[in-house]
Amino acid sequence: MRSGSQGNAVLTEVRTLAPELERATAGHPYQRVPEVVPALERVVTEVDPGLGFRLFLRVLKAYLVYISESQHLRYLELGERFGYNESVVDDGTLQFMPRAD
Fold it and tell me: How many structural domains are present in the chain?
């Protein structure tokens, strides 16, 4: 498993968006994914934080969960810490919504 600080950073980001993630996935009319947040947390803590981060990003993209610009910058920085290039984090499909952070 990778560094605990990276895992903690991923968990923080997942938990920050927990209500939005649950609302988007559990309430989806065609592809429901109930309890996605606990599943992501388990991947981060029990399997690999890097994989958990990539799955988190995939959920954001697939379910069109909006993020702020500051979150986007944090994700790019976290991706860099995992050794991912910028396109792994954002291939142009992350959804932005201006909001106060």
Answer: 1
